[in-house]
Amino acid sequence: MARFLKQFAVIGAAVAALGAGLAGGTVVPVSVAGAQESTAPTCAADGSVQTMTGTVSADQAKTYLLLPFEVPEGATRVEVGYSWAPSEGTTLDLGLWDASGTSGPDAFRGWGGSRQGRLDKGMPRAWVSAETADRAFTPGDIEPGTWNVELGLAEIAAEGATYTVEISCSDGPAGRETPADPVDADHVANPDPGWYRGDFHMHSWNSLPEAPDYEGTVQYGRDAQLDIMPITEYVVTRHHRELGAVQRANPDVLIWPGREVITYFGHAIVLGETPNTIEYREGFDGVTLRGIQRD
Q1: Is the peptide bond before 179 cis (omega within 30 degrees of 0)?
Q2: pTM (predicted TM-score)
Q3: Can you say how many angstroms the Cα of residue 257 is from the centroid of all Cα atoms in its chain?
């Protein structure tokens, strides 16, 4: 079976309430300890922890807050953890952008939703380095400059909420950036025409910490007698650079990368080889649903 629908994207298969009349989100000016203007803290490369705190109000729900911090020359690892209060009625999502900017594939280093780096849940801080990274985050060179923690303000309690963000850098051996290993776009799993079974909405550990790894996800598909297994991780791109080895180890099935684009006004499945970052922050810097569909 040829790799069909190559480069094909489906947006709208799982859309909920993504109407043109909905107000989009915004990026709120950085707030450290509640101030609207503040000097970005420097993440010292000695492993010490820097803390940023602030408050958000209910009318900021479904917007995005960027918290800049400086990564010094020589840092080889960046860690980010966070918490919020009250826990009831508030949900904050965690993302990370590096010194390349706050949009685009070169700058995007990952998104853990609200299931990662939660200090109030006793979780370790999410982290990135050149060779490896925490689940849902992308390894790559740690370039010095201004990085940004992204807090997605998914839900804010009526009385408002406070947040605490911890950042830490270290300067251990730098290592080398791991080369990308995407699936072979020309791989043929089965050349015979016929009916094939597929689940076009599958997640592995990049989406959910309790989900199986890639091999476990493929085994789940085999147990369900699937021939086609698009792995549609939440927001992130990491699996696009890692599924090549999984496909080679399972040549008789079609391992197909995809994405679940999560906006605060609905979700959509994107199918196909789209290793670039697909915007999910409707309202951020002019991002619109139409633009997301077009890109």
Answers
A1: no
A2: 0.83
A3: 15
Q: Which two tokens stand for residue 286?
A: 């002019």
What is the pLDDT, as a whole number, of residue 35? 35
| Residue 5: strand, helix, or coil | coil
Beta bridge partners of 259: 233, 270
CA distances in angstroms from 214 to 33, 106, 127, 223, 246, listed in the order given: 40, 24, 20, 14, 7
Residue 293 token pair: 């569909």
Ramachandran angles phi, psi of 137, nearest 5°: -115, 150
In this predicted model, what pLDDT tens digit does every residue of 47-87 receive, in sequence order?
999 999 999 999 999 999 999 999 999 999 999 999 999 99
Tokens of 165: 């963000």
Could you tell me which of 270, 266, 243, 267 has the C-alpha nearest to residue 255? 243
* DSSP at 203: -
Domains (range + CATH), the chain: 27-170 (2.60.120.380)
Beta strands in the chain (DSSP E): 27-28, 46-56, 63-71, 77-85, 91-97, 108-113, 126-129, 145-155, 161-170, 228-234, 254-263, 266-271
Nearest to 151 by CA among 231, 200, 90: 90
